[in-house]
Structures are given as structure tokens and as C-alpha cells.
């Protein structure tokens, strides 16, 4: 049997699916027809109902424990089980869904009891987020933004020693498809001596990788970098919406506050680390003269195998484009290889002071921009702080987001000899501010 045959599923839409072939099998939480949210697995254009699968006796052993935990209305308990249970489930699922499945006829006979059309389901947040930390590991974004404010010294001295991050707001994280209301706040208009209050005029998106935390650590017990990968439950797309005018006024001396806390969007599917294993790569070499990471942040295996090769996209759909039936316009094509620090380094640094991480905690990577304008992950960079308008096929221009604009994030993994997999979409549409 060829490798290609082994990747085929009896769920026909999975074969060649751009996001959810048999090689992916991400987990999410869904509901249908007003029912209770429950865990499922994306396979082609369908969702495998894990509760129905458990009730039908389709799993046993460690895979059954994992499937039961993942069938709940949030994935926190599943995340807490860690890699052994997750791997057991990933062995069992292809055995059920592959075209050579011994239970194929039985499973097909279960119909929509087992497989729900994705188009008829509502997606929910995959987990209850206890804490959310947004990092700043996209070095080109840090350089681009730094140049806007400090042309001669864009990176502060600590950047290449410390994975910079800040504590975000978990209560305003929402799943893809939820609308984002333009925030109100204080801004200091150019030339003014006192701030004014009102809707943000410089609303922006940020293209990020989301990292879901699995088993945590006891308070006071840091996670060693060599063990850090075992504390990662999976990945998603993340849009850290930003009000740049609010941010410019409030961020000194303590950093962003209201300019970030109003909304964060995440894609609904959790792509498990094992699905991304074929797309791991060496961490890009640091520039000559850059310091070697301190000992607690350095692991040779992590440097050789800890980075990810994921293509990232941002698309923009305006109200006018929508009304004219125009397709969303791609405005960014970037990659996770633009991360200056690995995910393991982020986990190790977050916990090195004794901070406890918990199942369902969420990290944002920070904006993952490339070196060119068409690879920038925010409008702040694309438009040089609003100085150079972005032109759209509808004849419109944008410096920052307007009401009715919809931002769509996508991700794709490709490698010769392996099935391409994707993350689904992370969408958010801007609504007018209150009042």
C-alpha cells in the first residue's frame, strides 16, 4: 500500500481537502440544532461526534479515556491528559476513518449520528481560557514597528535576550465568526495637548499563531526547555485586534491595556502537535553578532527541530467588496519561520519565575510579519503607520480598518511527500463603536 493510499479516508470529502484530510484531524467544540456544545474532530467537510463515537463503543483503552475527555463542552480536560493520551487518540482515529477501516460499513450506517455536516454546525471556543499571554516573537514585526518610533534603534536591548510578552485579557477571547465592536477610549490627536474620548480611528489586526497549553506546572516549579514541548496541546490562528491610537497614548510606561483587551479572535480547530510533526524545521539562524540564548532558553534539539514551517495569510473583505460579490483580497503572505523564539522557549521563559501554567491557557506568538510589505501582518506596517494607503481591487483604499471590514486569517502546511493540511479560518468583522 502506498503512502498516498494510507492517507485516504472513506469520508470522501477528506481526500484532497485543503484543510482537513486524514493527516490532520484537529479537535474542536461544536453544536448543532441548538444542542449542547460537545467535542468533535474535523474530517473533510464533516465533524466526527466524539460523544456518539464513545457511546457506540468505537474506542478502548487510553484512546477511550482521551475521546471521553475530548467529547466534553471544552477541551480543558483533554489538554490536561498530555501527549500519551493525545497520541493514543491519533492512532485510533485514522483506524476508524481510513478507507481500510474494519468498521467502515458500520460507521457509514450511523450517518449523521456520527458525522455532522460542518456547514450545519456552530463552532465554539475550544477551551475555557484561564489566562492569555501575548508574546512579541515576530522579529520583523518588532523591527518594522520599532522603526516607526525609533528609526535609529528599532529593537530595544532586551529583545534578543528575552521572549517579550504581556498578560492579555481572557474574557474577551472569542471564536472565529464573532463580530468585533470598534472600541472607545482615550487618544491624543496629533498636535493636541490633552486627550479626547471616542471611537478608535486606527483599528488594526495582528496575524499570530495561537498556542494552547496542555499539562501545566506546579507553582514555583519551572518547566525546563527540554520538557516544554510536552506542555503544548495544540495550535490555532489568532488575531490580536489592536487600537493603535489608544495604544500610542496608553502604552508607556506599562504597555498595552484597553488598546488590546477589547477583542482577540481564534480559529475553532486545535491542530495537534503530532499533525505538525512533518512540518517542523530548524530554528532560523540568528544574525551574526546576536547573543546566544541564556542556558535556560537553549536546547540543541529544540534549535534543530523546534520551529514550524507554516504559511500564513491575511485576507480583507470590505463591505463594498461584499456587496459587489468580490472575493476577499489577500494582503499578507507570511510564515511562522519569522519567529525569533521557538514555542518551547516561550513556555520555558513564561514559567522560569515559578509562574504556573494550566490546561487551556493560551499564548499568542505576536505578529508574524516578513521582511517585505506584502508579508507584513498588520496594517500599521503595511501602511507605514497610515502614511501609505493600501489599494484594494474595489477601488477603495485603507490605512486602518473601517466598519464593515472583515479580516480573514488562514494557514497552510506543505511538504513534498506529505498531505497538505490547514487550520481552517479565523474571521472577524468590524462593527461600529457603541454610543
From TrEMBL:
The keyword Calcium applies. GO terms for molecular function: fumarylacetoacetase activity; metal ion binding. Keywords: Calcium, Hydrolase, Magnesium, Metal-binding, Phenylalanine catabolism, Tyrosine catabolism. It comes from the Bacteria. Residues 140-430 form the Fumarylacetoacetase-like C-terminal domain. It is an enzyme of class 3 (hydrolase). Substrate binds at residues 136, 150, 247, 251, 367. The keyword Calcium applies. InterPro entries: Fumarylacetoacetase (IPR005959), Fumarylacetoacetase-like_C (IPR011234), Fumarylacetoacetase_C_sf (IPR036663), Fumarylacetoacetase_N (IPR015377), Fumarylacetoacetase_N_sf (IPR036462). The active site is at 141 (proton acceptor). Its EC number is 3.7.1.2. Residues 23-126 form the Fumarylacetoacetase N-terminal domain. Pathway: Amino-acid degradation; L-phenylalanine degradation; acetoacetate and fumarate from L-phenylalanine: step 6/6. Pfam families: FAA_hydrolase, FAA_hydrolase_N. Ca(2+) binds at residues 134, 206, 208, 240. Mg(2+) binds at residues 240, 260, 264. Its cofactor is Ca(2+); Mg(2+). GO terms for biological process: homogentisate catabolic process; L-phenylalanine catabolic process; L-tyrosine catabolic process. NCBIfam families: fum_ac_acetase (TIGR01266). This is fumarylacetoacetase.
